[in-house]
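Pilot study result, target chain (257 residues):
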Amino acid sequence: MTFKPAHLLVVLLATALPAMAQNLAVVNGKAIPSSRVDAMVKQLASQGQQDSPQLRAMVKQELINREVLMQEAEKSGLASNAEVKNQLEIARQSLLIRALMIDYVKKNPVSDAEVQAEYDKAKAQAGDKEYHAYHILVEKEDDAKAIILKLKAGAKFEELAKQSKDTGSAAKGGDLDWATPATFVPAFSQAMTALQKGQFTETPVKTEFGFHIIKLDDVRTAKFPTLEEVKPQIVDGLQQQKVQAYQQALVKKAKVQ
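Predicted structure:
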């Protein structure tokens, strides 16, 4: 059986098309696979960009530009440069490690039971009450005692709070807004929760920040977020804990000389 030239051209085109379809372009004889477009579009989509013909056209041109520049860099011998080699190895390690962590998280997902346990733990630590407190923070105990004497003599807490070392609350008369006891260091929380509404501490409260005079304005039932409201943050936190434990376990069993 013989083919006429026209028939031969049709056959050659038919066999070449599938291979060509797998390539985005061929730059100076080197093919750029179409799969690279999908990979870059996927990466951009994860950063919030919308997959569209316009985005794909932009990615196609970017990949062509990169290939042209890569070929020039290789012709210049930069691929053999020691510093470039080190940076490429660091980048390769980063990509592989990231892929390893993603794979580990997929194979070891956070369970609903773990999320519930973490939520219950956080809720218990937060307590069932919120406190609206004011405070004045000073460096020396004697200064704190002097302020307490002024308060007992009738001075306004909000006015004296202007001298507080805690500049953020000082500008608001010492107001710390509503918060649970767990928000504060233990010594502060213990002194605050022991107060009655309207009372202030009659002895300075020492913490690592200095000496406090605390005034309790009010107490109310704590408004703790629902599980559904905080579930994404809990899952993220537990995933990070799992990944850190996995990393530490691998390093621990590795033979390092």
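One observation from the pilot: The two ends are 71 Å apart (CA to CA). A full batch analysis is planned for the follow-on phase.
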